[in-house]
Amino acid sequence: MDALIARINDALWGYVLIGVLVACGIWFTWKTRGVQFRMVGEMFRLLTDSATDGTKNLSDANAHHRHISSFQAFAVSVATRVGTGNLAGVATAIAIGGPGAVFWMWVIALLGSATAFIESTLGQLFKQRQKDSFIGGPAYYILHGLHCRWMAYLFAVLITVTFGLSYNSIQSNTICGAMHEAFGWSPLLVGIVLTVLALFIVFGGIHRIARVSSVLVPLMAIGYFLLALVIVVMNIQLVPHVLKVIVSSAFGLEQGVGGAIGATIMNGVKRGLFSNEAGEGSAPNVAATATVSHPVKQGLIQALGVFTDTLLVCSCTAFIILISGLYTTPELNGIALTQASLNAEVGAFGPTFIAIAIFLFAFSSIIGNYYYGEANIRFITSSPAVLTVFRVLSGGVVVMFGALASLETVWSLGDLCMALLTACNLVAIVTLGKYAFRLLDDYRRQKRSGIKEPTFHRSQLPEIASDLQCWE
Predict the structure, then answer these.
(1) Triad 178, 182, 183: Cα angle to 5°
(2) CB-facing half-sphere around the CA of 258: CA atoms within 13 A
(3) 92 CB contacts (<8 Å, ≥6 apart)?
(4) In a structure prediction context, what are the per-residue pLDDT tens digits for the chain, which is 472 residues long?
(5) End-to-end CA distance of the chain
(6) Under DSSP, is residue 37 helix (H, G, I), strand (E, B) or coil?
């Protein structure tokens, strides 16, 4: 079964999705005039945007909402991005595709941040009201923007399976592998502890998830970045060599590591997308929960999330591994390679630190991934019983399955689900992207006129005003 899934993945990624992802990234970058580069300063400014700043143009019907701030939405989305992909995924990409895979991870992040801007802006535009919060995502903009019910339900099913089930097994598997490598703990024991913790948080809903993520994400990202910075400074003389190896391997100029250039590109793009999720349709689900005065604000925030994930955290892991030189060791892969590399640089403290870091990284991803599933379960049905069953499956059964399954099985299933999910979302955002372009033009126009906090009213898009519920 693993071999069959691997062949399907190679066909999808090798001949279809890589080209489409890059083409979409280039198209969105051109149409937005490089929004991901030109508006970086505005992205950072918006991190301090409070939830109350976005209530100016919301109706009285929303007055009782427990508002999610821009930073909280950013933290939840980064919580799902920053996880196994950053520590184990990068190591896997380097082990299989060679150092050049890092270059292609950077490329997909630079282009993908424009894609992330489009999908998250659309998530905000077509969001819907719930009892005490907002909800939205690709299923909602496919239904209300494309008016394609079957495709909306297909996406809802795919993202629920991908994030709520498949990806959570990957996070759990990596946590258990790291704990066993560092402390010799039984995967069964660690799986039980993870299950209990995950169930406690997922039964608390988006507000508990947002509170936990807004604490865990900054702590773990800053701590990991500081450790990587220390290692780079200690080996500063090797940095030019590392950069040379990355670039030369990316274009097949350096042979003997990781195989052909095709494997290098494929693994770089796959692991890059798994990590930063740009174009996958996940971040729009949490972007829609934020209370903001203009949809573009969350588009910019989520574009920054892609940079944070890949250019910062993934690069930390890549430099640690490449400086150690252990990526050429055949028996090392995944989280074990990252731990061994840190052990070579900082001693026995390394594997222990990674075990703790991967617990925080991956556990925050588990609870963030769960929310993506919940948002789409609510799209499919309003049945409390179905939601309860999903919570038990996502926070309990699948977490335990991941703890006990093999590394190859969970990653192969994750890659397959990711391919199908991304293909569905790209069709939607290419079709609806014209609205995001107009919103960006409006936002820039208001900023140029001296308005500090641009606002949006659905009358500004008269042709779809009746499909927009939350922009009175």
Answers:
(1) 110
(2) 31
(3) 267, 271, 333, 334, 337, 411
(4) 556 655 655 555 555 677 788 889 899 999 999 999 999 899 988 887 754 554 554 444 444 445 667 777 776 666 666 666 677 778 877 877 788 888 888 888 888 899 999 999 999 999 988 776 788 899 999 999 999 999 999 999 988 888 777 778 877 887 887 787 778 888 888 888 888 877 776 666 555 555 665 666 667 667 777 888 888 888 888 888 888 888 888 776 654 444 456 566 666 666 666 566 777 888 898 888 888 899 999 999 989 888 877 778 788 888 888 988 888 777 776 777 877 887 787 777 777 777 777 777 777 777 777 877 888 888 898 888 988 888 888 777 878 887 777 666 766 777 777 788 888 899 999 999 999 999 999 999 999 999 989 999 999 999 999 898 888 7
(5) 52
(6) helix
User: For the chain, how long is the longest CA-to-CA vector?
Assistant: 65
Question: Do 123 and 299 meet the contact criterion of CB atoms below 8 Å apart?
Answer: no
Give the number of other CB atoms < 10 A from CB of residue 303: 28
Non-local (6+) Cβ contacts of 444 within 8 A are none
Sequence-distant (≥ 6) Cβ neighbours of residue 294 within 8 angstroms: 439, 442, 443, 446, 453, 454, 455, 456
* Angle between helical axes of 205-234 and 349-380 (0-180°, round to 10): 150
Q: What gap in Å lies between CA 265 and CA 315, rounded to an integer?
A: 16
Q: What is the pTM of this model?
A: 0.81
The tokens describing 344, both together, are 């070579």
Cα 69-74-76 angle, rounded to 5 deg:
100
What one-character DSSP code corresponds to residue 22? H
